[in-house]
Design goal:
The complex is a heterodimer of chains A (183) and B (148). Chain A is mostly helical and 183 residues long. Chain A has helices at 3-23, 27-47, 51-72, 84-103, 105-110, 120-133, 138-146, 148-178. Chain A has two domains: 1-76, no CATH class; 118-183, no CATH class. Chain A is built from eight helices and no strands. Chain B has five helices and no strands. Classes of the chains: A mainly alpha (183), B mainly alpha (148). At the A-B interface, helix 3, helix 7 and helix 8 of A face helix 2, helix 4 and helix 5 of B.
Chain lengths: 183, 148
Protein backbone atom coordinates (compact mmCIF):
# COMPACT_ATOMS: atom_id res chain seq x y z
CA UNK A 1 0.00 0.00 0.00
CA UNK A 2 1.25 3.56 -0.65
CA UNK A 3 2.23 5.72 2.27
CA UNK A 4 -0.74 8.05 1.73
CA UNK A 5 -3.21 5.27 2.55
CA UNK A 6 -1.48 4.56 5.86
CA UNK A 7 -1.35 8.29 6.63
CA UNK A 8 -5.09 8.71 5.98
CA UNK A 9 -5.73 5.69 8.23
CA UNK A 10 -3.62 7.09 11.11
CA UNK A 11 -5.03 10.60 10.70
CA UNK A 12 -8.58 9.22 10.88
CA UNK A 13 -7.51 7.26 13.98
CA UNK A 14 -6.18 10.47 15.56
CA UNK A 15 -9.34 12.48 14.76
CA UNK A 16 -11.44 9.68 16.23
CA UNK A 17 -9.24 9.62 19.33
CA UNK A 18 -9.51 13.36 19.89
CA UNK A 19 -13.31 13.30 19.54
CA UNK A 20 -13.47 10.43 22.05
CA UNK A 21 -11.19 12.42 24.41
CA UNK A 22 -13.57 15.37 24.22
CA UNK A 23 -16.76 13.38 24.74
CA UNK A 24 -15.71 10.99 27.54
CA UNK A 25 -17.01 11.78 31.03
CA UNK A 26 -14.12 10.13 32.91
CA UNK A 27 -10.96 12.27 32.90
CA UNK A 28 -8.54 9.31 33.11
CA UNK A 29 -10.11 7.76 30.00
CA UNK A 30 -9.84 11.15 28.30
CA UNK A 31 -6.10 11.32 29.04
CA UNK A 32 -5.61 7.84 27.59
CA UNK A 33 -7.53 8.88 24.46
CA UNK A 34 -5.17 11.88 24.13
CA UNK A 35 -2.32 9.37 24.33
CA UNK A 36 -3.86 7.58 21.33
CA UNK A 37 -3.57 10.85 19.37
CA UNK A 38 0.12 11.21 20.24
CA UNK A 39 0.75 7.58 19.30
CA UNK A 40 -0.88 8.31 15.93
CA UNK A 41 1.56 11.19 15.38
CA UNK A 42 4.46 8.88 16.21
CA UNK A 43 3.16 6.20 13.82
CA UNK A 44 2.71 8.66 10.98
CA UNK A 45 6.34 9.79 11.43
CA UNK A 46 7.29 6.13 11.11
CA UNK A 47 5.28 5.77 7.90
CA UNK A 48 7.01 8.90 6.54
CA UNK A 49 10.35 7.14 7.24
CA UNK A 50 11.48 9.48 10.02
CA UNK A 51 12.46 7.09 12.84
CA UNK A 52 14.39 9.79 14.75
CA UNK A 53 11.28 11.95 15.06
CA UNK A 54 9.11 8.92 15.82
CA UNK A 55 11.33 7.89 18.76
CA UNK A 56 11.35 11.38 20.28
CA UNK A 57 7.60 11.86 19.73
CA UNK A 58 6.82 8.48 21.30
CA UNK A 59 8.99 9.15 24.36
CA UNK A 60 7.64 12.65 24.92
CA UNK A 61 4.12 11.23 24.61
CA UNK A 62 4.82 8.78 27.44
CA UNK A 63 6.40 11.58 29.47
CA UNK A 64 3.40 13.90 29.00
CA UNK A 65 0.98 11.05 29.73
CA UNK A 66 2.71 10.25 33.04
CA UNK A 67 2.58 13.91 34.10
CA UNK A 68 -1.09 14.25 33.08
CA UNK A 69 -2.14 11.06 34.87
CA UNK A 70 -0.15 12.10 37.97
CA UNK A 71 -1.71 15.58 37.92
CA UNK A 72 -5.32 14.62 37.29
CA UNK A 73 -5.72 11.33 39.15
CA UNK A 74 -8.29 11.61 41.90
CA UNK A 75 -9.39 15.06 40.76
CA UNK A 76 -12.99 16.01 40.14
CA UNK A 77 -14.01 16.46 36.54
CA UNK A 78 -15.53 19.87 35.87
CA UNK A 79 -17.56 19.74 32.70
CA UNK A 80 -19.48 22.45 30.94
CA UNK A 81 -23.22 22.01 31.21
CA UNK A 82 -25.01 21.40 27.91
CA UNK A 83 -26.89 24.67 27.63
CA UNK A 84 -28.68 26.12 24.52
CA UNK A 85 -25.94 28.77 24.18
CA UNK A 86 -23.25 26.09 24.08
CA UNK A 87 -25.13 24.17 21.40
CA UNK A 88 -25.52 27.29 19.24
CA UNK A 89 -21.80 28.04 19.64
CA UNK A 90 -20.94 24.46 18.60
CA UNK A 91 -23.07 24.74 15.45
CA UNK A 92 -21.49 28.11 14.59
CA UNK A 93 -18.01 26.64 15.08
CA UNK A 94 -18.67 23.63 12.84
CA UNK A 95 -20.19 25.89 10.15
CA UNK A 96 -17.17 28.21 10.27
CA UNK A 97 -14.75 25.29 9.80
CA UNK A 98 -16.84 23.93 6.90
CA UNK A 99 -16.95 27.33 5.15
CA UNK A 100 -13.19 27.74 5.59
CA UNK A 101 -12.63 24.24 4.16
CA UNK A 102 -14.83 24.89 1.09
CA UNK A 103 -13.16 28.25 0.45
CA UNK A 104 -9.68 26.70 0.64
CA UNK A 105 -10.36 23.81 -1.78
CA UNK A 106 -8.86 25.75 -4.78
CA UNK A 107 -5.66 26.20 -2.75
CA UNK A 108 -5.34 22.44 -2.23
CA UNK A 109 -5.28 21.98 -6.01
CA UNK A 110 -2.26 24.30 -6.28
CA UNK A 111 -0.21 22.24 -3.81
CA UNK A 112 2.63 20.17 -5.31
CA UNK A 113 2.46 16.35 -5.08
CA UNK A 114 3.32 14.77 -1.74
CA UNK A 115 7.07 15.07 -0.96
CA UNK A 116 7.77 16.11 -4.54
CA UNK A 117 10.06 19.19 -4.80
CA UNK A 118 13.43 18.23 -3.33
CA UNK A 119 15.27 21.49 -2.65
CA UNK A 120 18.91 22.12 -3.60
CA UNK A 121 20.00 22.22 0.04
CA UNK A 122 18.37 18.87 0.90
CA UNK A 123 19.86 17.33 -2.24
CA UNK A 124 23.30 18.52 -1.14
CA UNK A 125 22.79 17.03 2.35
CA UNK A 126 21.80 13.69 0.82
CA UNK A 127 24.74 13.66 -1.59
CA UNK A 128 27.57 14.99 0.56
CA UNK A 129 26.32 14.71 4.18
CA UNK A 130 28.08 11.44 5.01
CA UNK A 131 31.43 12.43 3.49
CA UNK A 132 31.45 15.99 4.81
CA UNK A 133 30.50 15.25 8.44
CA UNK A 134 31.42 11.56 8.79
CA UNK A 135 28.09 10.75 10.47
CA UNK A 136 26.20 7.70 9.18
CA UNK A 137 22.91 9.11 10.53
CA UNK A 138 22.09 12.03 8.23
CA UNK A 139 19.65 13.53 10.74
CA UNK A 140 22.46 13.81 13.30
CA UNK A 141 24.71 15.42 10.69
CA UNK A 142 22.05 18.05 9.96
CA UNK A 143 21.03 18.92 13.54
CA UNK A 144 24.54 18.84 15.03
CA UNK A 145 26.75 20.01 12.16
CA UNK A 146 24.96 21.91 9.37
CA UNK A 147 22.31 23.33 11.71
CA UNK A 148 24.09 23.14 15.07
CA UNK A 149 23.24 26.78 15.72
CA UNK A 150 19.52 25.86 15.80
CA UNK A 151 20.29 23.13 18.33
CA UNK A 152 22.07 25.69 20.48
CA UNK A 153 18.84 27.69 20.40
CA UNK A 154 16.85 24.65 21.52
CA UNK A 155 19.26 24.07 24.41
CA UNK A 156 18.81 27.72 25.38
CA UNK A 157 15.02 27.34 25.28
CA UNK A 158 15.22 24.29 27.58
CA UNK A 159 17.53 26.19 29.91
CA UNK A 160 15.16 29.19 30.02
CA UNK A 161 12.18 26.88 30.64
CA UNK A 162 13.73 25.15 33.63
CA UNK A 163 14.96 28.49 34.95
CA UNK A 164 11.37 29.79 34.85
CA UNK A 165 9.96 26.68 36.55
CA UNK A 166 12.54 26.90 39.33
CA UNK A 167 12.05 30.64 39.78
CA UNK A 168 8.26 30.36 40.11
CA UNK A 169 7.81 27.10 42.03
CA UNK A 170 10.72 27.37 44.42
CA UNK A 171 9.68 30.80 45.68
CA UNK A 172 6.13 29.63 46.44
CA UNK A 173 7.47 26.56 48.25
CA UNK A 174 9.74 28.72 50.39
CA UNK A 175 6.84 31.11 51.10
CA UNK A 176 4.64 28.28 52.30
CA UNK A 177 7.44 26.79 54.40
CA UNK A 178 8.00 30.16 56.07
CA UNK A 179 4.31 30.36 56.88
CA UNK A 180 3.77 33.66 55.08
CA UNK A 181 1.14 33.88 52.36
CA UNK A 182 1.75 36.15 49.42
CA UNK A 183 -1.33 38.37 48.84
CA UNK B 1 12.25 -0.59 53.64
CA UNK B 2 10.39 2.68 53.54
CA UNK B 3 6.60 2.71 53.42
CA UNK B 4 6.07 5.54 50.90
CA UNK B 5 5.63 4.99 47.19
CA UNK B 6 4.06 2.01 45.47
CA UNK B 7 3.92 -1.68 46.46
CA UNK B 8 6.87 -4.02 47.00
CA UNK B 9 6.36 -5.64 43.57
CA UNK B 10 6.67 -2.32 41.76
CA UNK B 11 9.72 -1.36 43.83
CA UNK B 12 11.52 -4.65 43.15
CA UNK B 13 10.84 -4.52 39.42
CA UNK B 14 11.92 -0.87 39.29
CA UNK B 15 15.15 -1.64 41.16
CA UNK B 16 16.13 -4.13 38.44
CA UNK B 17 14.80 -2.37 35.33
CA UNK B 18 15.99 1.18 36.05
CA UNK B 19 19.60 0.20 35.26
CA UNK B 20 18.55 -1.44 31.98
CA UNK B 21 16.60 1.67 30.96
CA UNK B 22 19.58 3.89 31.86
CA UNK B 23 21.89 1.62 29.82
CA UNK B 24 19.52 1.81 26.85
CA UNK B 25 19.43 5.60 27.12
CA UNK B 26 23.23 5.80 27.11
CA UNK B 27 23.32 3.41 24.14
CA UNK B 28 20.91 5.64 22.18
CA UNK B 29 22.95 8.76 23.02
CA UNK B 30 26.36 7.23 22.19
CA UNK B 31 25.10 5.79 18.88
CA UNK B 32 23.26 9.00 17.91
CA UNK B 33 25.51 9.60 14.89
CA UNK B 34 25.03 6.03 13.60
CA UNK B 35 21.45 4.97 14.32
CA UNK B 36 18.12 6.79 14.81
CA UNK B 37 17.78 8.50 18.15
CA UNK B 38 20.50 10.80 19.38
CA UNK B 39 20.80 13.23 22.24
CA UNK B 40 17.16 14.25 22.55
CA UNK B 41 15.66 10.75 22.41
CA UNK B 42 18.31 9.24 24.68
CA UNK B 43 18.00 12.12 27.13
CA UNK B 44 14.26 11.56 27.44
CA UNK B 45 14.90 7.85 28.10
CA UNK B 46 17.31 8.75 30.93
CA UNK B 47 14.75 11.19 32.38
CA UNK B 48 12.02 8.53 32.20
CA UNK B 49 14.24 6.02 34.07
CA UNK B 50 14.73 8.50 36.92
CA UNK B 51 11.02 9.37 36.79
CA UNK B 52 10.31 5.66 37.20
CA UNK B 53 12.22 5.69 40.50
CA UNK B 54 10.41 8.86 41.57
CA UNK B 55 7.01 7.26 40.94
CA UNK B 56 7.83 3.91 42.53
CA UNK B 57 9.74 5.04 45.63
CA UNK B 58 8.31 8.48 46.33
CA UNK B 59 9.96 11.89 46.52
CA UNK B 60 11.78 11.61 49.85
CA UNK B 61 13.62 8.38 49.00
CA UNK B 62 14.59 9.67 45.53
CA UNK B 63 15.91 12.87 47.07
CA UNK B 64 18.23 10.78 49.25
CA UNK B 65 19.23 8.39 46.43
CA UNK B 66 20.03 11.10 43.91
CA UNK B 67 22.19 14.14 44.53
CA UNK B 68 19.70 16.76 43.32
CA UNK B 69 22.06 19.81 43.57
CA UNK B 70 24.62 17.84 41.52
CA UNK B 71 21.97 17.20 38.85
CA UNK B 72 21.24 20.94 38.77
CA UNK B 73 24.95 21.64 38.26
CA UNK B 74 25.19 19.03 35.48
CA UNK B 75 22.16 20.64 33.84
CA UNK B 76 23.70 24.12 33.85
CA UNK B 77 27.19 22.86 32.97
CA UNK B 78 25.98 21.00 29.89
CA UNK B 79 24.43 24.19 28.51
CA UNK B 80 27.79 25.89 29.06
CA UNK B 81 29.76 22.98 27.55
CA UNK B 82 27.76 23.28 24.31
CA UNK B 83 28.95 26.90 24.05
CA UNK B 84 32.52 25.85 24.90
CA UNK B 85 32.51 23.36 22.01
CA UNK B 86 31.11 26.11 19.78
CA UNK B 87 33.86 28.57 20.74
CA UNK B 88 36.53 25.87 20.37
CA UNK B 89 35.26 25.67 16.79
CA UNK B 90 36.11 29.37 16.36
CA UNK B 91 39.59 28.91 17.86
CA UNK B 92 40.53 25.73 15.97
CA UNK B 93 38.65 25.84 12.67
CA UNK B 94 37.61 29.46 12.30
CA UNK B 95 33.80 29.34 12.57
CA UNK B 96 31.29 28.93 15.40
CA UNK B 97 30.37 25.25 16.10
CA UNK B 98 32.70 24.06 13.33
CA UNK B 99 33.35 20.31 13.20
CA UNK B 100 37.02 20.56 14.16
CA UNK B 101 37.77 16.95 15.19
CA UNK B 102 38.80 14.28 12.68
CA UNK B 103 35.92 12.68 10.76
CA UNK B 104 37.17 9.11 11.15
CA UNK B 105 35.80 5.99 9.50
CA UNK B 106 32.14 5.99 8.45
CA UNK B 107 29.98 3.74 10.72
CA UNK B 108 32.72 3.62 13.41
CA UNK B 109 31.71 4.56 16.96
CA UNK B 110 34.53 7.15 17.14
CA UNK B 111 33.71 9.13 14.03
CA UNK B 112 31.90 12.28 12.87
CA UNK B 113 34.09 14.74 14.79
CA UNK B 114 32.18 16.82 17.34
CA UNK B 115 28.75 15.27 16.64
CA UNK B 116 29.00 12.49 19.31
CA UNK B 117 30.39 15.04 21.78
CA UNK B 118 27.43 17.39 21.22
CA UNK B 119 25.05 14.40 21.39
CA UNK B 120 26.34 13.48 24.86
CA UNK B 121 26.06 17.09 26.05
CA UNK B 122 22.48 17.42 24.74
CA UNK B 123 21.55 14.04 26.21
CA UNK B 124 22.59 15.08 29.72
CA UNK B 125 20.97 18.48 29.27
CA UNK B 126 17.58 17.07 28.21
CA UNK B 127 17.62 14.31 30.84
CA UNK B 128 18.41 16.64 33.73
CA UNK B 129 16.00 19.37 32.54
CA UNK B 130 12.99 17.07 32.18
CA UNK B 131 13.64 15.19 35.41
CA UNK B 132 14.17 18.38 37.43
CA UNK B 133 10.96 19.92 36.07
CA UNK B 134 9.00 16.87 37.25
CA UNK B 135 10.95 16.88 40.52
CA UNK B 136 9.99 20.48 41.26
CA UNK B 137 6.37 19.91 40.16
CA UNK B 138 6.12 16.84 42.42
CA UNK B 139 7.20 18.98 45.38
CA UNK B 140 4.12 21.20 45.31
CA UNK B 141 1.71 20.24 48.04
CA UNK B 142 -1.90 20.43 46.95
CA UNK B 143 -4.48 22.02 49.22
CA UNK B 144 -6.58 18.84 49.54
CA UNK B 145 -4.73 15.69 48.41
CA UNK B 146 -0.97 15.43 48.71
CA UNK B 147 1.41 15.19 45.76
CA UNK B 148 3.86 12.29 45.35
Amino acid sequence: MPVETWLIFTLGFMIFGSIVALELKDILSSIIAIGVVGLGVSMSFLFLQAPDLAIVQFLFEIFALIILVRAFIGKENHQLEASPTNRILTVIGILAVLVLFIVSIPVFKLLPPFGEPLMNVSQHYLDAGATETGAANLVASVILDYRAYDTLGEVTVLFAAILGVFAILRSTAKHKAAGGSHE
Amino acid sequence: MNKTGMTLIVKTVTRITVWMILLYGFYIILHGHLTPGGGFGGGVILALALLNVLLAYGRDYTGKWLNIPLLEHVESASALLFLVVGFLGIVVAGSFLANFLSKGQLFAILSAGTIPLLNIIIGFKVAMSLFLVVWVLAGIKMSKGDAV
